[in-house]
Every structure is written in structure tokens, then in C-alpha cells.
């Protein structure tokens, strides 16, 4: 991973940036963290115990050494917690100032040693940022890197990574990759929000591979689900259904969906979504 | 107050909400309590230095184990509460308002030490009570939140607008007017956002509530769709208000069909996004408009039938009789078994306006094919969520069906 500073303005110091990443970078960072943590966790208590025993400063140097080990462990966790504080609530910052958000992520990624979970969650934030910046190649790289490692007690993060990965793969025209991600998602218990996002991605995938009939299966139920989404996403999903219905010759449904999407979306939004649907289409046979 | 409730559930009254919120007010733990684990750890470290006997040697370890166990239990407890709040939020989204309100009521005491979750739960409570049409109680919850937020915060503006809408429903017109005037500049600054859309909806509701129908139509005629778009399907309530305004203007000018046509157009938009049931649940008075539009539609259908009959053409007459009759397909004589007529109802009378040529049947295969075609057609029509109210058992639709049956 390369980190290159860039000047955001002449008066303020240049903001740090995170360069292109790969799974090797994450692997290297995790190994370095682990090595440092063990070194500190064992080295400091051992040194303290030897010094205390040598100078006979306490009747129980071993007990004191173990206590120092506990303190060291807490100190290491404190460093990780401080790092995590910086990147935990970044949703607003992503929207307002992505450069500042990237600088903060770069800063946290430089910290060492970090707990494995904190390192992985920081990479998740990086993937989210790249996804928002529509840098789909880097999104795929970051998501796949994190998904290679188990994320304990944070199933929601794993699901979010899979959703971002699927969308990036669809944007890149990788139908096989999107299928694999979607099938992994379908084995998980999703929250309502994630289920809605999965529905949108699945519909897009089905349109991409030409399974229009499958996209329209249980249409009333899917429309009800779409109504739970924010207006823009709801309108976009209506456009997807409209395309599927018109391609499969279901004119009344297509008309109804089109009329609804015109109410939910402005002319500009409608055109943009239709334009974005001009995606590379693969035939179902190619997937096999 | 128009409160919707099942026999086992009754939304709380405003006083009950006030009392419950007072009892479950958020609390901040004292500084020494939050620092206690750290203090205990320091004490344990000190004891290790001066350990003289077995008790002072073991005690630090017991303290350490206790602190770690407490931290783990605390983390698990917080996670459980967070997941419960998320589930309540999902129930609210899925319109399970009674279930969500019950859960919030029970959950509030548990989140007193978590101000963020407490605020979120009160906001959810206000929303659910609003949807249960317990408007005065919802107003209390909104007030509670608004008093605890900076007045110019976007979240606060949104809540103030929602409270204003409730005030309009509760006929507190003076308070609503004052609030709308105060919020207007802030809301309009936001551009095309849910906040500005809520403002426009509230302003339209105010005009309708104060019988300024002409103003409502004049101000919103060309821009209402764009203005309410950020509300998503909820914009249907605004279109229904616009339809109501046009309908009221049509009553003033009974000779002109322009207003009624506009009313129909807006009502179509409203029912395209929301079911008639949902529209009427929020505003009872719209029933008159719904009934009028349904009645007009049927009158037009009847008129269309009459026009065709008046043409006195044998072909047309046959067509009309065939379509009005349930036995659309003639029974061929050579069949061993009687042909089952399709269970689905005969083609809608609306089809007469665009004449449908009934299939001429000559053989059993053709008959079966025709029956299948007819069934498929009906199934397709059934599947189409025409205006989102196909499944609504509203009185209006029942009346229309009764009329159709009588007509048949």
C-alpha cells in the first residue's frame, strides 16, 4: 500500500491519503500488529519482573509481573480504542468531507499495534469510502481483503461488505462474482435494511443476466419492500422492475411501474437511472 | 380523537405519555461510577506491591476478575439493548405500530442510562403514535424531543414540522399557523429535501383545513409533484389533499367538469402511491371524494353501455349482451360434458369503451383454449397492482361492486 500526501489547500497542511490497497497489505499489517502486541505484552512484564526480582523491590515479583502484563494489555486496548474512536462514526464525514475522512483513516492505519478487529473495521471504513467515491476496483480489493478474515461479533459489517462488493462487481460487469456474493448473502440472516439493499442488487443482477421473469416474481411483495426504501432507491427499483416488465412484454405492469417511478423520481434522476442500466449484459449460459 | 386500536390495544393518552416520559427521563451516571473499574484496578495493583499474606495476594486477582466480568456483562447488555432497539425500528418500518409502541413503552426504562438510544426510542414512539392516529399523544412525544434539541438543528426542524401537521389534524390551527410561519424560511432553505417537502405538505394541509381550496390549487397546481417528491410514496397524502381541493371547487361550479377532471387526476396519482384504505385512514373526509370518483366512473361506464346500445347495430348489441352476460361463450351442442364457465368475473364494463371481440367458439379445443385465455387474462389483470388499492375492502368499492352486480 502506498501513501501519498496531497495538498488540499495552500494554507493548511497536506491531508494524508490512502493509496491503492491489496489483500497483501492487510495481511502484512495484521502480522506486524500481532508481532508487536506479543512483544510488548510479554517483553515489558518480563523485563519488569526481572528488574524487581534482581533488586528485591517486592516480595512477589511474579505476581507483580502478571499485574504489569494486565496493565500492558489494557494499555494496548486503550490505543486500539482511541484509534477506533476516530473512525467509528464517519457516516456524516463521508458525505460532508471525504478527503478529511480519508486522512483520518490513513492516520489510523498508520497506528500500531492495533487490535485485529479494529484494523479490519478500519479497512471496512476504507471500503465504504471507496464505494462512495465510486472507485469500484478499490472497493472490490478492500472488501475481498477484509472478507478473507473472520469478523467476530460484527455480522452486520460482514453483510455490509458483501453488499458493497456485490454492487461494485455489478458495476464492473462481473456477473459471476456478483452471483457468488449474493449467494453468500442469502445464507445469512439479514436486517431489514440489508434485506432491502439485497433486493435491489439481486434485481439488478437478474436484469443483467436476462432473467426478467425471475426479477418480476412476487412483484406485489417486492413493490411493498421497495416502498420501505428511501424515495430515490424506491424509484430506482421501480425503474428496474419497469425495464424487466417491458422486456418480458408485460405491458400493463410496465405501464403501472413506469407511472409510479415518474412520480417518485425527477426527470433527471429517471434518465440517470435508465442510463446507468446500460450495463454489460451477459447471457445466462456464460455464467456456467 | 380518532384513535385506531385493536380490542387488546389502546394507544396511551397524552397524560400517560407525559408521565411515562417523566418517569423514564434519561440519566447521566456520576463521574466516579464510570471511573470505578479503573480505580479498582489501581487499588489492585497497589495491593500486589504490598502483599503480605494470602488474602492480600488473592484479593487483587479477585478484583481483576470482577472488573473483567463486569465489563463483559455490560458490553453484552448494551448489545442486547441495541439489537432490541433495532428490531423496534424495523417493526416501525414494517408498519407494526401497535407492537412497536408496546415494546417502546417497556423498553424506555432500560435505556435511561443511554441518552442516544432513549432519544431514538422517543422519536419512534412519536412516529408510531402518529400512525396509530393518537395525535395528541404523539404531539406530547414530539414536544419532548423538540424541547431537548437546538431549535435550528435539521432534525429539530423536521420534528417541529411533523408536530405542526399533528396540530392541524388536532384542529389547533393558531399554533400550527404560528409554527409554519416560523419554520418557513428554514424549511425552504433546504431545497428539495424531506424537510421542505414536509413543509409544503403541512402548508397544503393548512390551506385545506382552513377551506382555502382555491389558494391550495393555485399555489401547488404545477409544482406539487416536485415539491412532495422527497416524501416518496407518502406524497400520496398530499396528492389526495389536492384532489380534495379540486373536488371542493367542482362543487362550487357544478356545470364545469374541469375541476372534477383535475380531482380525478390527482386522486389517480394519490392512489397510485398509496392504497385508498391508507388515504382514508389518515383523513376520513376523503371518503366523500373516493365515493364520488367511484360513482362517476361507474356512471361513465353505464353511459358508454347506453351509447353502444343506442347505435342499434346488431353486431354491437350482440357484443354488449355477450359482455354483460356471464355466459360469454356459447355452449356447443356436441360436447359430452358441459363446459365450465370461468370462475372469474366477466370482463369489466370499462372494456366496453374499448370493445373487446369475444372469441367465436366452434370446437371443444377452441372452447378450452378460449376459457384458458380468458382465465389468463383475468389472472394478469388480478396481478396488476392497478392503483395499490386492489385488495382494499373499502366501503366505496363494496358499493361499486354491489351496483355492478345489480346492473348485471
Structural description of this entry:
The complex is a heterodimer of chains A (288) and B (408). Chain A has a domain at 17-149. In chain A, 74% of the residues lie in helices and 0% in strands. Chain A contains 15 helices and no strands. In chain A, helix 4 runs antiparallel to helix 5 (116-132), helix 8 runs antiparallel to helix 9 and helix 12 packs antiparallel against helix 13 (251-264). The longest helix of chain A is centred in the N-terminal third of the chain and has 33 residues, at 23-55. Residues 5-10 and 281-288 of chain A have low confidence and may be disordered. With 408 residues, chain B is mainly alpha-helical. Among the domains of chain B are: 1-148, no CATH class; 311-390, no CATH class. Chain B is 70% helix and 0% strand. The longest helix of chain B is centred in the N-terminal third of the chain and has 40 residues, at 54-93. Chains A and B meet through helix 2, helix 11 and helix 13 of A and helix 2, helix 3, helix 13 and helix 18 of B.
- The oligomerization state is heterodimer
Shape of chain A: elongated
Mean pLDDT of chain A: 86
The total of beta strands of chain B comes to: 0
Counting DSSP E segments of at least 2 residues, the number of strands of chain A comes to: 0
How large, in whole angstroms, is the Cα Rg of chain B?
A: 32 Å
Which residues of chain A sit in consecutive blocks of at least 5 with pLDDT less than 50? 5-10, 281-288
| Relative helix content of chain A | over 70%
- The share of residues in extended strands of chain A comes to under 5%
Instruction: Note the main sheet of chain A.
Output: none
The secondary structure category of chain A is: mainly alpha
What share of residues of chain B is helical?
A: over 70%
- The arrangement of helices and strands of chain A along the chain is HHHHHHHHHHHHHHH
Q: How confident is the prediction overall: mean pLDDT of chain B? A: 75
Please report the distance between the alpha carbons of the first and last residues of chain B.
Answer: 41 Å
Sheet with the most strands, sense and barrel status of chain B: none
H/E topology pattern of chain B: HHHHHHHHHHHHHHHHHHH
